[in-house]
Amino acid sequence: MTAFVNSIQEILKARHSGLHLIALEVTSSKTELAYQEVKIKLGEDGNHKPMPPEESEYWIELARNTALNKTWGDLKPKEIRNISKCLWYSSTSTPLVLDDKFLTPLIESCQKNLKKRLCAILIDGYLSNYKKDGQGIKLLGKWLAQTVTVWDWPWADRQKSFSLFDNDDAPRVISDIIMKSNDSLEKVLNDCGISGNRLSVGMGSYAFLETLKFFRKNAESLSTGNTLFYLKRIQEWSVADGKSFSYPTLKTTFIESLLLPWVNATPDEKIVNQTLGLLIDFFGDPRLGGASWILVNEDAMRIIRGWLVKRALAQFLDVVDELALDRQWKYRRAFWMAYYNKGVISDAWVAFAGNGASKAREIAKRHKDNSWLSFGNLYGSGDANHAVLILRIGDLIIADFSHMGKWRIWKAVSNQKAPKPYEKQYDRYDIMHGNADHEGPHLPVDGWQRKVEQVIANATGIKLMMKEYMPR
What we know:
single chain; seven-stranded mixed β-sheet; elongated
């Protein structure tokens, strides 16, 4: 008896502290039953383990025979519970929940045998398999909305607070509450009843989708502070299991929702950094390929490519700035940023020798931004401080070596020796002796720019005025 009482006390203590209930060691079948009953009373029951397929098939067959023979009154409470667990199961046959002729009499049987345990099973099925306007969902939701209020338990409160079983409104209401609450995400998800196994499916997935829709529509008009808050909340929600992206079917929607608000606007640099870090952490660098980026809208891809061009320039300029001569480096910064500001650099990539690579990793760690880790490795330079910036402007490939190295320009279409952006390894010798169509030193420090600008202008028609590319 002592073990039984202790188990009950532990359960109540866990609930009172606001922690999610964990599996407690059960020493007897009596204690196990008491544990389950307390969970039901607290409204925590529902995250059920899936029934084995062969067992599901048995109960589905019983359900279909019952419907055919109209012998619902002969079913025992346990049989009704087990059939209720299989409503959404589908192997070769149509799920029971899609059959109104079956679902209506089942709900009537549930009403006649109404118990919290049975209701909790149907709640779990509803939330885990929710589809907006899904067949059967409205009928079951309408019944649950009325039924959960019969008892004094958390599901009644959830229905009142979140319209949890109102088919059209629930995902939006849950999304609004989660995104506006100052409570921890874990607490709000638990309050809504979509934590645990329900988080990334059904209602949890639709609520997350509503959040993405809101962000895509409104991010441009929000303050920087609010946008950053929403981004952080979205990030927490998307990995609420603490491991990986929780909504694999929403990958493309997720990426586009975070990028498309900025089609006609330039976000604060903090927003860019947070978004880049988030997307690259989840899906990798789009410049390096990857299945997650294949279906992404071209406008969204254009936005992230533009941000990554600027990031590559920042890598080259900021990292090498600490390793190069001040008297010549400010001219490089002004020159290449002028082309970036004109929006004509379509690709940008950096390759670092040892010291530059270490510095880039240091910056990534300091800012917790893995987009700084995307770069190539430069070998054969003989100097660990060396780096090379590789750009594409129009049909030209440009390689600009750090320190006192030369600039080199290739016509990419006709010159197969041109280095390609986004490679993992670059040999300094290959770039230096790659039969460039044009090359020259960065001398004088305020004079080489005119020659490079003329080469680019003649080949692409893209022109800059001196006041645009000289440092102020």
